[in-house]
Amino acid sequence: MKWYQNLSINQKINAKSVFALACGVSFESLDFMFSLTERIEMLYNKLVSENIIVE
User: Which of 11, 39, 41, 54 is the most buried (most CB within 10 A)?
Assistant: First the structure.
C-alpha cells in the first residue's frame, strides 16, 4: 500500500483503470470480495511479477 500512497492522484486513477488490463478483471467488480488494500496489493504484485515495477 505504501507504493500506492506515493502515487499522484492522476497515477492512482490510471492504476485503477488499467487494473483490468493487468489482472483480467475490473477493479470495481472485485469490491464485493476484496478490500481496497487487497485489490491494490493484487495490482502491485502483478506489476512486480511482470517486471513493470522493480522492488
Answer: 39
* Averaged pLDDT for residues 32-52: 94
Instruction: Label residue 42 by pLDDT band (50, 70, 90).
Output: very high
Is the model's pTM score more than 0.70?
A: yes
H-only helix segments in the chain: 2-5, 9-17, 19-23, 36-49
CA distances from 31 to 10, 41, 44, 52 (A): 21, 13, 16, 24
d(CA 16, CA 39): 9
Q: Give the span between the Cα atoms of 31 and 19, in whole angstroms.
A: 13
